[in-house]
Amino acid sequence: MGKFSRSAATSYDLSLAAMEEASRDGLREADLAHLLMALSISEQVGGQVLRASGVTLQRVRQAVAEEREVQLRALGVDRAQVAPGPIVFHQTGGYEWSRRAQRVLTRANARGRDGTASAVLRELLEEPSGAIVSLLGGVGVARGELVAELDAVERLTVSGAGGGVPSGGGVLQRSDVTFVPAAVGDVWALLADPARMPEWDILLGEVAVPDESRGRVPRPGDTWEGLAKSEAPDGTPLKIRPALRRTVVELLAFRHEELISWRMSTPDEPRANARRVTVGLEPAAGGTRLNISFAWETTARGPASLVRRVRRLLMTPAMRFAVWMQLSQIGSGISRVFRSGGEAAVGR
């Protein structure tokens, strides 16, 4: 992934996570603290350094809540009246960055900087108001400690962000790494349950699991029938062609708490691309590291497939972006399940 693409991907991921966090507070403006929360769940070096230093999402949320409680108590406001709720970013709209948070992101992407999570964290630590340095002090972490750790890790790290390449055999595939602030067992319970797939796959509205199958450990080759999502998160009806409404969900691989692979196809429209999602899980400081691979499989055969291959070649940049977008949405969707609930759901 080139510098521009990596910078754009980082900005997208941080913006999404920060604005999701702002939505928990009933805000439409994401500020510096929300940016720090987003960095704390980044799988890039900046996020790893934060978590290794004890700056987890849980602790940042707690520090922000304590600061806010002090401020509100001075105003005579009961904290319980403004307790954070679930993430509602996707059901609402009108979100933006605060001016000072936008300046941090702009400087992290300026000439001579690479726009990575590390660059954003460095700029956040230098932000003139000192709000983040003060917040980190409440967590027991000093600015100099983080800068020294960033310097040490970056000297040893060769950037290896996820790549996306057209693969042979009619497959367009991309992979990336995502951090989830929850224990491996909890993440596995989500990913291994076909009935819960709509919680993290934005295209699925329902997966039917027969009563006789509930509680049984699934095996590779097992299939279930699902339905495409009929409404956007904000309740807007989605226009879905009848042939694309039904989905067959197949389990391709299953290694308990280590790896799972799903394939989603549309039996009523065999020419449509099948989707394949493979997730590897491993423990990480403060949660779980996910190695996610997403692929589109072309299924057409015969003379028409040549036309489709030529068309796909011409559309490769757009298709790469679409594959990256779905991969990003899967990673953020899995993470959001655990970030949107109560504080107990977040890895400490």
What would you say about this model in short?
This protein is of the alpha+beta class and 348 residues long.
Q: What would the principal axes of the Cα set say about the shape?
A: globular
Q: Give the number of DSSP strands.
A: 10
Through-space gap between termini: 31 Å
- Named at the architecture level, the CATH assignment of the largest domain is 2-Layer Sandwich
Q: If helices are DSSP runs of H or I spanning 4 or more residues, what is the number of helices?
A: 11
- The CATH superfamily label of the largest domain reads START domain
Domain Clp R: 18-111
Pfam families: Clp_N, Polyketide_cyc2
Protein name: ClpA/ClpB-like protein
Organism: Leucobacter komagatae
Textual characterization of the structure:
Residues 18-111 form the Clp R domain. This is ClpA/ClpB-like protein. With 348 residues, the protein is of the alpha+beta class. The chain folds into two domains: 3-156, Orthogonal Bundle (Double Clp-N motif), CATH 1.10.1780; 164-345, Alpha-D-Glucose-1,6-Bisphosphate, Chain A, domain 4 (2-Layer Sandwich), CATH 3.30.530. Helix content is 41%, strand content 20%. It has eleven helices and ten strands. The protein has helices spanning 3-24, 32-40, 45-52, 57-74, 99-108, 117-125, 131-139, 143-156, 184-191, 303-314, 316-339, and strands at 29-30, 96-97, 164-167, 171-180, 204-208, 223-228, 246-255, 259-265, 274-284, 287-297. The strands form two sheets. Strands 3-4-10-9-8-7-6-5 form an eight-stranded antiparallel sheet, covered by helices on one side. The chain has a two-stranded parallel sheet with strand order 1-2. Strand 7 and strand 8 form a beta hairpin. Helix 1 crosses helix 2, helix 4 packs across helix 7 and helix 5 (99-108) packs across helix 6 (117-125). The longest helix has 24 residues, at 316-339. The two termini are 31 Å apart. The model is unreliable at 158-162 and 343-348 (pLDDT under 50).
